[in-house]
Amino acid sequence: MSKTPMFIGLLVFLMFTSCGTKKEEKHEEAKFLVTSPIKKDTSITKDYVSQIHSIRHIEVRALERGYLKNISVDEGQTVKKGQAMFQIMPNVYQADLEKAAAEAKVAEIELKNTQLLADGKVVSENELSMAKANFDKANAEVSLAKTHLGFTLIKAPFEGIMNHLHVREGSLLDEGELLTTLSDNSKMWVYFNVPESEYLDYIMSKDKGAKKAVSLLMANNKVFNQEGIVETIEADFNNQTGNIAFRATFDNPDGILRHGETGSILMKVPFKDVLIIPQKSTFEVLDKKYVFVVDKDNIVRQRLIHVAAEMQHLFVVDKGLSENDKIILDGIRMVKDQQKVAIEFVEPNSVIANLALYAE
Fold first, then answer.
1. CA-CA distance, 284 to 288, in Å (whole number)?
2. Model's pTM, two decimal places?
């Protein structure tokens, strides 16, 4: 008889313990962190593949036909303006100059004699005019011969770096034959292509007349140590790509940049009064971005958004959300559309400042 009350008491204790456990499990229902979009001014950095060109890059060609007598410079050498680079065999052109000078001397003597005869009324004024014309013609031949002789010595038109030699000493050159190229790298022109939509945003902005500062990311993934300025936009769009070329100018005091290099232009694009949300609060369906919005009854609603720009950990949203919306920040893979959830609100500023802490 004494065992029966003890058994009943144990059974009652287990029933109460079981009920308490169920209540605790219900009480510990999971809460989802939610936040709101934050409106603020910001900027993003866009990068564009670019081609780097010297501000002056020319072909050096032979102006006369003849044998290449001497090369005074070497590949990769920096040359000064007016420095001798190539000497074409000058013998023939020197002889032409001497011949022209002699003929000019004869014409000068004939002019003096005719002048004396004209003063004595022995010859007519027409003969004197003819002698003057012959003298002028002879002087012109001298100038022409000097010019041809000067073309045999090819000098640097500006200070720059000489490129690959296309000829060697002793080569027989034709008029116009390519000898080398010369690059002025004191400043560099960097060309980059901008899509039509971004071009329109740029050209229609209030500060379109201001000089736009840009940076250059070089091929070694380091930023060039000089800031560039966007100075011009080409006239026509490329119909195949839908892009238009911008040109930025960079000073190159240390000669780091060379003609033909590649890199990426980094341009800051400002955004005013835009909504910003964490990237981790979004998900994709068929290349479209969505968020889970929690309504006043704590019901989850899937909503399509449009992302205008992307930053590290953040999206700039221009369609689909307002400042007052509450979006699920954490655990978006654990909820479904139309589901009722318990939430815990986190201030947007706190979320932005501590994104790494909220990483899944």
1. 5
2. 0.69
